[in-house]
Structure formats: C-alpha cells, structure tokens
C-alpha cells in the first residue's frame, strides 16, 4: 500500500461510507456480502494494512498479558523468560501492552490451580506460560480456549492442544544430540550414565522426550544401554546418594543430566574423578563449572529469547491481527568452556 491510499479513498472507490469500510477492515457490524466482497477486493489490490498503532493510541486501548511461570530465584532458569519479556516490553509498552506476572509453586498443584483461577478472573487478552505441570496445564488451556484467550507456550509443547504458538526446542532431537556429545570420540565399550535430579513436580514430559532421544542414539549405534538413576532434589541425602552410585560404578565415561541440575553432579564428584558431563541450561552454577572445565557441554535453550518471542507473537496476534506460526524452533546451541561468555 502507498501512504496516499486511505480509508476515505477506498470508500470512494467502493462507493460506500467510510464507516462501512471500517467495519469490513475490523470485521464487525453488518455489511452485505456483495459490499464486503467488493471492499475486500479493493483492500487486496492496494495491499491495505490498517494503522493499528494510531488507532490503539487514539482509543487509549490497553492489552493485558499474563505471564504464568514457576516461582524462582534470579539465578535460576525461569528468570530467563522474565528477562526476555521485559526486553520486549520496552518496545511494546507504548503500544498498549501491559504485562502481569503470576508465579506459583511448581511442587504444589493447588498453587498452580489457584493461579489459573486468578488469571481467568482477570480475563486477560493473552497468556504466556510454560506447561510445567502437564495434566493441570492441559486443563487450564482448555478453559482458556473455551473463553477465547490465546495462549503461547514456551519451554515445552502440548502438541494436541489449542495453543497459539509454541516457542522452544525439539526435546527428542536435543536428547539425541546430548548422546552424541557425551559419546563422541569414546569407545563403544565404555559405560555411560543418566542421572535425573528433579523437583517433585518437574515437567516429566519434556524430560522423557529428551531421554527418549538419548536412548535412541545408543540403540541406533549399537552401544550398550546407559545406566539410569533418578533422584528427588528434596532428598536430604542427595549428595551422598550421588557419590555412592558414582563411586560404585565402574568405567563411567560420561554422565547425562536431562535438566539444569548438572552442577549437583559436579558437587557430588570426588575431585580426582574425571568424567564427561552433558546437561542443560546456562544458569550461573552450571556456567561456573563449565568455565572450570568440570561440565563439558551445556545445551542452551535461550530462555530469554523464548520470553521475548512469546510476548511479540501475542502482540502480533492480538493487536496487529497477523497470523503467527504454530511452532517457532529454538536452535540446539552447544555451549562449552570456550564460548560460554559469547
């Protein structure tokens, strides 16, 4: 569209009022099918795009977005999406976007459900969330769908649910990549270990997808199945239990940690013990051990970019009325000692 093409000019070409053109553009009010078809044809010919910026400012319209995440410390993974949302909000706040954060205890289903009830009462224009609690998140998504609230997911997808967009990695591929990194250059006869250290209500869905990819690599390459151990982070004897399995395991060449808890493995290892470690998430503890060479590889999920993209996709859908993709893939970034500051 050229800047000279206005609603008034479109109305003159269609021989209708400006109000009729406005109703067609914004899909509201009664317009006869023939008139609607004629106006839409002209809009396509001139490649018309409504000036939503000016319109929203003129109406002083506000669009409320809720970000639903687990409670966390600033040093933890879930603070990354918050930083991304805040970065995006610097550009979008002047365009009517307002953000409210709702945090819940991820080890307490009732806490999550109470947050969901509070959000539905607010009737926001959109929601950005990570479906940490699988079944409860599905229930919440369906309730949002019933009242036409668009939802963007980050971190992990629920592919069979009605969501606007998912922004994150392919968990199965990331697990397959982790297996490649862990075993690269090592003899097939050497032993490997999976150690899952989870909170009581960690998102087991995405962890299982990663583990599935990891196991697939070992199966396809004919290597022996890795030993698998699972612990609760709430275990008071966690460090001792980790030390016991590592000390009693022979010829363990590598350990895979399918979440952000790699640093707990390092803390449990004897100083003289040398083994390759692959995990996830560039949180401060992991980053420090990466720089020291005690963690070999971190698969970085770009949580800041997930949060930033999430808010921007909601803005495009809600304000600009533009189509957005169902899936936005985050790259499988491999972080090492040499590039952890990049």
So what's the overall shape? elongated
Order of helices and strands: HHHHEHEHEHEEHEHEHEHEHEHEE
Using only C-alpha atoms, the radius of gyration works out to 25 Å
Mean pLDDT: 88
Helical fraction equals 40-55%
Low-pLDDT sequence parts = none
Largest sheet geometry? 6 strands, parallel
Number of strands: 12
From the N-terminal CA to the C-terminal CA, the straight-line distance is: 41 Å
Strand line-up of the largest beta sheet = 2-1-3-4-5-11
Strand content: 15-25%
How many helical stretches?
13
What is the structural class?
A: alpha/beta
What's the quick description here?
This protein is an alpha/beta fold.
Describe this structure in words.
With 342 residues, the protein is α/β, with parallel strands linked by helices. The protein has 13 helices and twelve strands. The chain has helices spanning 7-14, 18-25, 33-45, 52-59, 79-92, 109-122, 134-146, 171-183, 204-220, 238-248, 262-268, 284-291, 303-318; strands at residues 63-70, 97-104, 126-129, 151-154, 165-168, 191-198, 227-232, 252-256, 276-280, 297-300, 327-329, 333-335.
Question: Helices, strands, pairings?
Answer:
Blueprint: H1 7-14, H2 18-25, H3 33-45, H4 52-59, E1 63-70, H5 79-92, E2 97-104, H6 109-122, E3 126-129, H7 134-146, E4 151-154, E5 165-168, H8 171-183, E6 191-198, H9 204-220, E7 227-232, H10 238-248, E8 252-256, H11 262-268, E9 276-280, H12 284-291, E10 297-300, H13 303-318, E11 327-329, E12 333-335
Parallel strand pairs: 1-2, 1-3, 3-4, 4-5, 5-11, 6-7, 6-8, 8-9, 9-10
Antiparallel strand pairs: 10-12
